[in-house]
Amino acid sequence: MAARATIVAALTTAGVRAVVSGKLSAPCVLVEPGDPWVERRSGGRPGWVSRWRLTAIAGRADSNGALAELAELVDATDTALLAVAGVQLPPWTRPADYALEGVPHAATTGIVQYPQLG
The whole model's pTM is what? Predict the structure, then answer.
């Protein structure tokens, strides 16, 4: 859970609204456990790797501005993640609708891997 707190803190410091649960208010980045969530590092290296699914959700519901806003949110998220040691920037999925209170918002997801010694 320390990994999630570090990612959330980096996003918050960069001015990106990060949420982990509860009622969402876009624009935001939802930080959830990835799949698989945790596994031991391979090759005899100590520690483990945790994965976190980031869902960037644009605040605009209209199609004209939603993709542009989503692209800005992804850029801000990537910039924030560069400050987290050991985390590589995620590949982001093709934008799709994410319903917030029945209203579709453009969203994209990426999985970050957070290596930890232990």
Answer: 0.88
